Amino acid sequence: MRKVRVVVAQIAPRLGEVQANLEHHLEVIEQAREAKADVLVFPELSLTGYELRDQVADCAPDCGPAVRRLAEASTDLDLVVGYVDESPAHKFYNAAAYLSGGEIRHVHHKVYLPTYGMFDEGRYFARGDVLRTFDTSYAPAGMLVCEDVWHPTSAWLMAQQGASILFVPSSGPTRGARPGEVTSVEVWHELLSVTAQFQTAWVVYCNRVGGEDGLIFGGGSIVIDPFGRTVAEIEPLAEGLLVADLDGEVLRRARTAYPLLRDADVEMIYRELGRVRRTRFDLPGEDPEPST
To answer: For 118-155, what is each residue's pLDDT tens digit?
Structure first.
C-alpha cells in the first residue's frame, strides 16, 4: 500500500433532489482537489438522501446519469458516492460506487438492510448478496455501507480477500445526546476502532449530517488506523471536510505485530460454518471429521 490522502465529505444531502445533490458533489470535488486529495468519500445515499421510502423508484432513473457525470469528474481523484441502483429486473439497491479514472470501477449493494426501530430499508430496497474487494491505484479496498459493518463477518471477509482499506459510507441518525456529546457517534467510533484493529485495516467512515422526516443524522466522520487509533475526526452534526493521510507503513507495522489475517484458519471456519448451516436448516449430510 502506498501513501494516500483521503478527504471525507460530511454533507447534508437534500431528500429526493438528485440534481441539486449532484451539483453539491461537484462543488465538494473542487474543494477536495484544492486539498490535493487522492480519494473523496461521500456518505450513504449521498445523491438522494436517506428517508426516500416511496421515492426510491422515482429517484433511481436520475441516479444513473448522475453517477456517470461524477465518473467523468474522477479523472484526477477517486470518488466514493452513494445512490439508488436499479437492476435490469427493476430491483432497487442501496448502493455505493467507487469511481476512478473516469469510470465506475466497483459497485457495492448494501447487504444488511436495517428494518427495525426507526429503520425501514427492507421494505423499499433489495438486499445485496455479494461482498467483494476491488483494486485501486494505491491498495486493495472494500466498501461496507452503514449496517454492513455492524456484522463482523462483513469486514472479516473483506480483509481475508486482501482489503487494506475499508470505506464505510453511512447515514447514521442520532439516538440521544449528552451535553457536548452525541452518544450515537461514540458508539460508532468504538465499533469502527475494534473493526480496524481486528482486521488490521484502515477504516474511513463518512457519516452524513442534517435532518429528514424527524431524523437527525449525527456526522462524526472519522479515519482510524490499523491499530485502532483515531487519525482524524470531524465534529458531529455540522457539515465539513476531513483530510487524512493513510500511510502504508502503518499498515505493515500493524500486520507484523498482529498477524491475525495470516493465522485465520479459513478451512476450519468453512467446515464449521457448513455444520452450523446443516444444523440450522436441518439439511442432510454428515459432518467431516476435523483433521488431526
So the answer is: 899 999 999 999 999 999 999 999 999 999 999 999 99
Burial of 35 (0-12, 13-18, 19+ CB in 10 A): middle
Residue in the structure block whose three cell numbers are 421510502: 53
Q: According to DSSP H, which parts of 73-151 are helical?
A: 121-124
* 3-state SS class at 94: strand
Domains and CATH numbers, the chain: 4-280 (3.60.110.10)
Evaluate if residue 49 carries a pLDDT over 90. yes
User: H-helix or E-strand containing 189?
Assistant: helix 183-199
DSSP letter for each residue of 254-283: HHHH--HHHH--HHHHHHHHHHHHHHHTT-
Phi, psi dihedrals of residue 130, rounded to the nearest 5°: -135, 135
Report the distance separating Cα 50 and Cα 170, nearest Å.
10
